[in-house]
């Protein structure tokens, strides 16, 4: 545990004396315990993918975003904000991310055989460390091949911040995967600092308008202006765009009036287990 403690002490930006601060020691112990628990959970596959539906304004189902949940034996369903940050700091995100990718590809392989689901895309979140691994491209290719995935149905979600360094290397990796037909979406768009100039270099397919701008779009003129700007950017770069965090019919209508026809949010459904997602798709088709 000592090296985690050192790491935490360093991270807090204090001198080594703070190492003996009892409160800090407690935090260190907690983190170490949680990290061990997370490592065990990965070894024992205590995770499940939930699926959040993505809809077109016409009522047609576009696909889903896969969102990981930790099925904790005592605590029940644990949300990603409680373990993804720790997984990223500790490096455990590499094995967790690999599990997520594989689980998503297994499912996409199954969808291919199902007329109800075969046209749908599945978006998978990829963290910075995962994407920057030397063998990431190979992992994805291998997964797609092994599970018989139609690559055009797989969409990888990246974030702006992870694309800032080693841009040439990132573009090369993206292009290699795009050559197979795999798509890329830029998640949480608008929260980073990417310039249009920079964005134009990236071989993206989609921008995801961050839910922070969608939340108050009906009453906040600034957010409204930001969303309109994002949409104008996406259109000028000939990218798809989807709004996330759409909770009300009113928000949807405002978005639609700006030309945004792709939505994800609680208005349609929260992220749900596979069976429930399939039921939602069935209901949408019957409507
Ligand atoms: P994200 O990729 O931006 O995912 C969208 C988050 O917004 C999800 O939270 C979703 O449940 C939530 N959301 C969707 N619609 C609404 C809405 O209408 N209202 C509100 N209030 N929230 C909405 P979730 O599932 O808790 O995931 C949080 C974050 O954790 C994700 O943000 C993503 O960054 C990360 N994450 C989740 N699964 C994975 C994964 O498999 N790998 C990696 N690397 N990160 C993941
Ligand atoms: Mg996402
Ligand atoms: Mg997002
Ligand atoms: Mg996020």
Automatic annotation (TrEMBL):
<feature type="domain" description="EAL">
    <location>
        <begin position="31"/>
        <end position="285"/>
    </location>
</feature>
<protein>
    <submittedName>
        <fullName>Diguanylate cyclase</fullName>
    </submittedName>
</protein>
């Amino acid at each position: 545990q000592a090296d985690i403690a050192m790491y935490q002490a360093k991270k807090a930006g204090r001198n080594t004396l703070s190492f003996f601060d009892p409160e800090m020691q407690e935090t260190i112990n907690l983190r170490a315990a949680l990290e061990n628990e997370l490592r065990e959970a990965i070894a024992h596959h205590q995770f499940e993918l939930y699926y959040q539906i993505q809809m077109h304004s016409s009522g047609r189902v576009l696909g889903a975003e896969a969102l990981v949940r930790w099925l904790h034996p005592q605590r029940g369903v644990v949300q990603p904000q409680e373990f993804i940050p720790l997984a990223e700091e500790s490096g455990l995100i590499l094995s967790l991310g690999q599990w997520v990718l594989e689980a998503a590809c297994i499912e996409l392989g199954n969808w291919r055989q199902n007329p109800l689901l075969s046209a749908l895309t599945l978006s998978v979140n990829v963290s910075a460390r995962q994407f920057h691994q030397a063998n990431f491209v190979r992992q994805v290719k291998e997964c797609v091949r092994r599970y018989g995935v139609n690559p055009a149905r797989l969409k990888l979600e990246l974030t702006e911040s992870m694309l800032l360094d080693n841009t040439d290397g990132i573009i090369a990796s993206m292009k290699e995967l795009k050559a197979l037909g795999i798509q890329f979406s830029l998640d949480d768009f608008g929260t980073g600092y990417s310039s249009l100039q920079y964005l134009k270099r990236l071989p993206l397919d989609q921008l995801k308008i961050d839910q922070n701008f969608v939340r108050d779009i009906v009453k906040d003129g600034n957010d409204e202006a930001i969303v309109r700007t994002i949409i104008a950017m996406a259109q000028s770069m000939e990218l798809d765009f989807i709004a996330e965090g759409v909770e009300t019919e009113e928000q949807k209508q405002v978005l639609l009036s700006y030309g945004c026809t792709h939505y994800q949010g609680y208005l349609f459904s929260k992220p749900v287990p596979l069976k429930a997602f399939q039921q939602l798709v069935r209901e949408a088709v019957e409507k």
